[in-house]
Amino acid sequence: MLLTLAWGSVFFPGLFALCTWALRRARPEWTDYDCVMISTRVVSSAQAVLATGSGIAIIHSCKNVVSDRYWLAQEYVWFLIPYMVYDIYAMYLCDWYRIKEQNRRHSLTIFRNFLRKNRLMITHHVAILLVLVPIAQRFRGELGDFFVGCIFTAELSTPFVSLGKVLIQLKQQHTLLYKVNGILTLTTFFSCRILLFLFMYWSYAQQKELSLFQVPFRIPVFCNVANAVLIAPQLYWFSLLCKKAVGLFDTPPAEKDG
User: Which tens digits make up the pLDDT trace of 72-102?
Assistant: First the structure.
């Protein structure tokens, strides 16, 4: 546990520092905010790839979705804890550089604005640290590694979300790459963050020889509550992505007239 925590504490900040240094050397014309923002996206994507890979390995290894164990189900959670702490700081650092470039003072007011603007994401991170980590590591006992693996695969959409934000920052939102990435973002987000919950219920139904509709009444109430709490912000974020997608493929008035 301690070694895994230590590796995570070195890996994520270290990768961020390395990316920021490399971008400043390779693209001296970019602002500090550009370099820092893109570096945070690289680190987020790296974490997402590691989490998704771990999740796939766990799902593949757990034939019995209730009782089978796989070591990554616990070890990757310890590796994830430093990332959550780092990511909150990285989000704040991005805001700090953005405000600095606008010649605004760095003050307590700016910090409060950061908390207000990012309250949903910060709540998400804090909930993972204070609620999901204890559940995954202690309270579930020796059951449910398969479902922990499923939750890890939800990160599959993160690299596409990150690429989209980088392209916007570089003013490439009118390119074909941006539009293709938008489609992939919607597809992976819907599949791995919304349909994922249906897949978990279906997998349990197959294991216990139940119909899908019987599952919510055969599992503990707290499991249904936990899934509802997890899927609620995903539905909200997906609605925001859909709104952006509508604007993405909307034809400008000048083109319609032509």
Answer: 999 999 999 999 999 999 988 888 888 776 6
Query: What predicted TM-score, i.e. pTM, was given to this entire model?
Result: 0.86
Q: What is the CA radius of gyration of the chain?
A: 20
- The alpha helices in the chain, defined as continuous H runs, are 2-26, 32-61, 72-101, 108-117, 119-127, 133-134, 145-153, 158-169, 176-193, 195-208, 215-218, 221-248, 253-257
- The number of beta carbons lying within 10 Å of the beta carbon of residue 32 is 16
Q: What is the pLDDT of residues 168-200, one digit of tens each?
A: 988 888 899 999 999 999 999 999 999 999 999
CB 15 within 8 A of CB 46: yes
